[in-house]
## 1
Amino acid sequence: MKQGRTRRSAPAVSMNKIFAEGILNGRVAFVTGGGTGITGGVARALAEAGANVALVSRSLEHLEPAAKAIN
């Protein structure tokens, strides 16, 4: 018999379900590493929820396209 933990996958969650539209109006969100990957998606969701998003990264080449996608 196999011992140890059994891996279970987490249910898929839409970012729209986490941040209701307009809930962050007038707020500022600083997103580090916001140019790519998961944090890029979080930055977009925060913007859609009404936040003013400031993206921070070590790479300008990743930030410019991410900023254009948010605006």
Note: The CA atoms of residues 25 and 70 lie 15 Å apart.
## 2
Amino acid sequence: MAIDQNINFSASATDIPFLLLPETDSLFLNRALRLRNLAPGHAMEAYLRFMAGVANAQHHAMASISQTGRPTAVPGQPPLAIGSVERDPAWQQVLRQIADEVSGMAPEGFSTRLQHLLSTASSSDLESWAQAYLDGDFTGSDIGIMPLVAASLQVYWAALTRQLQDVPVEARHAGHPSRLCPVCSSPPAGSITHAGAASQGLRYLVCSLCSSQWNMERIRCVSCGDSRQVSYYGIEGTAGSIQAEACDACHVYTKIMHMEKDPALEILADDLATLSLDILVGEAGYQRYGLNPLLLTEPELAAAE
């Protein structure tokens, strides 16, 4: 099945690249390394180490995932839109592979439950979990497995982006909000400002699912687009490299990370390690826009913190 939709890697006639697809060979390995480096002495050390193990398992799964079928693009929608891609069963094998690899690292109570869930779950159950995650429904009794479901879907969608490397994608789709990923239509985990080369100082939103990055101007609310009522919050210990961009127009915030101040930053890892910033901004009356699937947890996992 061919993707006949054009991908325009520039948002305009400028040389600024609009879309950056993930480097799938190193994506999860870099995340695992960053999580391990952030863990020592951290208040959430055990949980960061566990998530480093999950990221390492994702790296192994990415290397072994079977070739996924190329989805057919739906006109007017992103090429890998979560609402139109028919999932290949390969993602289920990724879930089981990741779970097998990390089960020995998880807290005992959670590990036992995880093995029970997967040993009794049918293919239909797994698809229901996946759909619940993609729909943003985190209210079910199986929320504890959601970080691993999300990890598996991240591997699957990142693998799909390999098929777009040489295929032109439109920077904008009619009616598609700029706050959602132009590749898969998922919300961002946050944003980063790049350092070096052609993207020095440019801000990119980072997809929480496929890990693609898309350009958005700085000092503009990711949620509502306002640029007049934006302010920034920070915490000690980050040297200004990680901030919360808060908007008084819609009372929403997203995190922004500056690689020119810390080239080692990794969006999901550093987000997880700076929950004190989320608490600070939340107490100031702002709600978060975006998603970090590493934060979906329950008491068994939280106890590891």
Note: The chain has nine helices and eight strands.
